[in-house]
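Reminder: ligand-aware prediction takes two inputs, not one.
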Amino acid sequence: MTRAAVLEGLGAMVPPRIVSNDEIGELVGSDDTWIRTRTGIHQRHWAEPGTVTGDLAIAAGERAMRSAGGGKVDLVILATSTPNQPMPATAPEIAHRLGLGTPWAYDLSAACTGWVYAMANAVGAISSGLIDRALVIGADIWSTRLNHDDRASAIIFGDGAGAAVLRAGDPDEPGAFQGFDLGSDGGHHDLALLAVGGSRQRSYRQPPSEQDNLLAMRGKELFSHAVERMSSSSAKLLDRIGWTVDDVDWFAGHQANSRILYAISDLLKVERERVLLHIDRVGNTSAASIPLALTHAAAAGTFGVGDRILSTAFGVGLNWGSTALTWPDIKVDGVLGD
Ligand code: UT7
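Here is what comes back for the chain with oxa(dethia)-CoA:
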């Protein structure tokens, strides 16, 4: 029988500090009504100074490992655009601090699509027989990079981490990943930029400007690309794996804006009751957004064993990716801090 990768455990966390729409509105010149109606966000969580992305990733990873019954893994991938530092990668430190021994470990940078890209890497490694078990974590801290002079982008981001354990299994068992659709379009790489930390912006004897330290994002243009790419990628994936839209029990899309999620569900003709919404509680948590939404829903008892889940993401780069799985029989604790 063909070898498949199966979801074995899930866990997520958000830092304890809640930032209300009123608080961020005060900082950037916005208000609760605008933020709720234009984005669906009611609040977000921000990490305190001194807390790094690896700390959030470890807390989520610990919960995912517990959900999977403990043990070791052969691979740790951290999907993030805000690692502890540009070099070295954060994933080996996470593996070490989680007591996972000396697995293959690396960071993967694909912005808000990072989670789906990382899952594709892990599923490919397991399906091919290269490894038997993997821990995939999506984590980002964007709160320190927000430009308070750009209220459109400053209000959407929150910090958090989500993690999953995957193991080798059979394609027919609940929890098996069914396939992927992945893509990129670097022709629009300039729609968002964080200039510091790379070779484009040399800092040696030339300190970066304050603006270069902050996220610059053209939200309105990204909005249209997000709707177009996530809906077409989802449709392609469904076609490839032989599912119809009616087969999909739950639509777990990247939580960038509730209007984006509803626009995609309308295009795909997925009823809104089947769309997972978690953005109201945490904002856009970038690479953490899908595992956070899945963990929240799983802990609330939303999924039944065997339910069919379609997941899709879009990120700056541009890049996008979709995957589908059936829901396994696993125990998932609620999102820590949520
Ligand atoms: O995570 C993956 C990558 N990122 C995304 O996918 C982000 C997708 N984009 C979005 O979610 C939305 O574009 C934003 C939430 C970022 C912005 O919402 P929008 O509806 O596209 O606003 P806009 O930038 O087109 O601005 C419309 C109006 C403008 O006022 P005027 O010129 O019409 O008078 C803005 O000044 O809304 C104003 N505005 C605000 N007003 C109050 C923009 N942001 C705010 C704000 N509070 N926070």
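The chain has one domain: 1-338. The longest helix spans residues 219-241. We will return to this case in the review session.
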